[in-house]
Specification:
The chain is α/β, with parallel strands linked by helices and about 375 residues long. Helices cover about 35% and strands about 15% of the residues. The chain contains 10 helices and 12 strands. Helix 8 links the parallel strand 11 and strand 12. InterPro entries: HDACs, His_deacetylse_dom, His_deacetylse_dom_sf, Ureohydrolase_dom_sf.
């Protein structure tokens, strides 16, 4: 087993999002009666890791709360003040599709601090652990410099990346985001610089609709360092494997990051209510294993995996189990009770990947033949 740290705190359960309201195109509000981003998500994942025996092989570490100076590396003072004020006053709606409670801003700082603690562990030369998985909430990749959005208050991956560069210091950090939704907040924060390579694999024409297009490649010093890989609905593990082998890995090998951070949303799974993709546990095993191998080849094995989305309570723990299995190279005997077959690769998916390869080849040395 590859030594791996596990970062978690029971306070993550205290971020109470309640039942969520959604506004329809007609302007009417609809109470869906659901809590998509809720504490059961992390509780069920932890329970799965305990019952399969994986957790006993990981080093359990508590996070700390990110300080204001840590948040200010990527967020504005206005945003931080706004989140703090709304939570203190008991305002439930903190941003577009972001719900919380009086304790949510503190817990969001704990979540960002969990990402920073993961960086501390893997960058400590005296610590024999090169990789860490942070089971944190609220998630972060939709939060921009000056706004909360899509369940996200502070951008955990962005805070961790900037912290790593300033604290240790590292020259280059790569963020790989496989959440089914585009990591628009992370893209916004790093769009004009090259110290952080941001790569997002997401379902095309989905949330948020205003970002995540293939042609969004960065600007100024950041041109070429923002990589979007939108995939058609229904893409399964076979399509994601091709993306990692033919798009992600070649760019990572050229960029040679000092640290790889993964925004690990397991909502591309086939049972997720907020996804139309079909990646099952073997697919998540494979993606995590590939990232682990990339880290070994480029970043002195330094790998940080941060929990993002995933909203199927029956399957999120199984999908995340696959991620941890791939990270640690330790595979459990757990039998998946869900009989969803792996999706075959489609011409539509291959054409999308080829289109991505053509665009990315303007800034990176990609193989010339079709995938």
């Amino acid at each position: 087993m590859v030594p791996t740290a596990f970062i978690y705190h029971e306070d993550f359960l205290k971020h109470n999002t309640g039942k969520q309201m959604y506004r329809l195109p007609s302007g009417h509000s609809m109470d869906v009666g659901l809590e998509f981003e809720n504490g059961k998500r992390v509780a069920y994942i932890k329970d799965m890791l305990e019952k399969t025996g994986l957790l006993e092989h990981m080093k359990h570490v508590l996070p700390y709360e990110a300080a204001e100076e840590d948040l200010l590396r990527v967020h504005t003072q206005r945003h931080i003040n706004d989140m703090r004020k709304k939570c203190q006053e008991g305002v439930r709606l903190l941003g577009s599709e972001v719900y919380g409670c009086q304790d949510s801003e503190r817990i969001a700082r704990l979540s960002a601090g969990g990402a920073m603690k993961a960086v501390d562990i893997v960058c400590n030369e005296l610590e024999p652990i090169n990789q860490a998985y942070a089971l944190i909430r609220p998630p972060g990749h939709h939060a921009g410099a000056n706004h909360a959005e899509g369940f996200c208050i502070y951008n955990n991956a962005a805070v961790a990346a900037r912290y790593a560069i300033e604290k240790y210091p590292l020259k280059r950090v790569a963020i790989i985001d496989w959440d089914v939704h585009h990591g628009n907040g992370t893209q916004e924060i790093f769009y004009s610089q090259n110290q952080v390579l941001f790569m997002s694999i997401h379902e095309e024409n989905y949330f948020p609709l205003y970002s995540g297009q293939l042609e969004e490649i960065g600007e100024g010093d950041g041109r070429g360092y923002n990589v979007n890989i939108p995939l058609p609905s229904g893409t399964g593990s076979a399509g994601y494997n091709i993306v990692f082998d033919h798009l992600i890995d070649p760019i990572i090998q050229q960029y040679q990051p000092d640290l790889i951070i993964v925004s690990a949303g397991q909502d591309p799974n086939g049972l997720d209510p907020l996804s139309r993709m079909r990646v099952m546990r073997p697919g998540f095993q494979a993606m995590a294993g590939k990232v682990r191998e990339m880290a070994s080849a480029t970043s002195n094995a330094r790998l940080v995996v941060l929990q993002e989305g995933g909203y199927s309570l029956p399957y999120l723990p199984i999908a995340t189990l696959g991620v941890i299995e791939g990270m640690t190279n330790m595979y459990t005997e757990f039998q998946d009770p869900h009989g969803i077959p792996e999706s075959p690769i489609t011409d539509e998916c291959l054409n999308s990947i080829e289109k991505c390869r053509m665009i990315l080849s303007h800034n990176w040395n990609m193989q010339k033949e079709r995938v």
